[in-house]
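ok so heres the complex, two chains, lmk if somethin looks off
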Amino acid sequence: MEAKRALIISPKDNVATVLQDVEAGATIAARQGADVREVVALEKIPFGFKVALTDIPRGAAVYKYGEIIGKSSQPIGKGELVHVHNVEGTRGRGDLATQGAQQ
Amino acid sequence: MNFLGYARPDGSAGIRNYVLVIPGGFVASKICDSVVGAKTIYTADHGSGRTKNDRETIARVLTGLGRNPNVGAVVVHAASPGAGYPELAPERLAEEIAQSGKPVAVVDPAKDGGTFGAIEKGIKIARRFSYEISQQRRVPCDFGRLAIGVKCGYSDPTSGLAGNPAVGYLYDRLVEAGGVAMFGETTELIGAEHSLALRGRTEEVGRQLLKAVEVIENLAKASGQDIRSVNPVPSNIAAGITTLEEKSLGAVHKAGTAPIEGVLKYAERPTGRGLYFVDNWMGHLSIFLGYAAAGAQLVVFQLGGGGTPGRTILESTPAVVAPLLWATANPITLARSEDGVDYYSGTVIEGRETPEQVGERLVKTVLDTASGTRTRSETLNYVDPAQVYTREPVF
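and the predicted structre for the whole thing:
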């Protein structure tokens, strides 16, 4: 079976965006310029969603565009879907802001 | 590179040729119902009970629409709830618009025989304006005389990968040509503001940009809510965007690579040419109105749409006098809304075109639209209510 296409935007990224719907068990060929990294999808990854390129421990930074897009809220295994169930934002968190922390 | 536009007395170039009737309301609506080529604004923002700053914002919107190059002549009426405030006095609005050199008339129920007398007089004047401005002919105008405002909406991963970069390409070309390129959506700079601030023409511009983001983030924190419960909006998340930071980092691609000349308030006219950041809000009924008031002849909605069930195109002309061009990079959105999309850049993701090729195609689409080709949304008469981005409490 042909590998599914995915895009790594920056070499620093630990996630790739899949450019096709990917079923569990399928191989993903994630491209960053001339480099291609293969990862096996551990679960279904829909078009446009992100797959982990490495194991990401809980609380670690998640990188896309070479920038931090959030931190993992639970350990994420290589090949797993990366989305709101395992990543949270670190900015604009009114739910975490205490009276004293507000400026 | 040229388009065919209407040369205005202030040196600007219109891509449409309308009579504008302001403020919104019964008198304006009745005049526009009768007169071909007459436009008005539908909004609840009349200024009554608003602070001075907010009244100034509303006045900037009204005078800015009047001064917009797409407007050939203006009728101002006095039958508005806000007309008693000095900022919104019809004479003041008319005077500011008249500085652009275009014909402006005022009708006033108190002097012209009541509401219906003002409507009758307004129709007569607007008809004359409609006839007179129709005698103007389009002439070749340089690409760099355009001002464009952009919003990305219903964003999905195709927005950051292809859609916004295509707009960024257009913006780089427009700035090179001497045009004005405006982007904004302050909330959607959160997480991407530091790299953007480095592109300020001066350190002060970068500082103003960071300050605008800080103000919005502090408001988000004061709300007591995780901003993710508000923005990214549900359709963003449904399409695979995980955090506001991720959305922002994709969104900033629409700003291209040019230096940022300044930070503008909502509906504020830029003083020079080049790329400007506008401290505005993403709502599409608000943001495009502000761009048109700042002088944009054309506005672009870069649509993701992957996470929106059903149709995603909003049949709408929210910029009142500036055509709205719909762009998308999502093949599903394109297939769902073929009669609504003006431009498609998803060919980059499909490997069928290079970023330069899709970017050049957008430049051509913009030039064609500027020369008179209608955008899809312009082929409908429907007008959405517009929303002025006011930021202070009401009393």
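quick notes: The first strand of chain A starts at residue 4 and ends at 7. thats all i got rn
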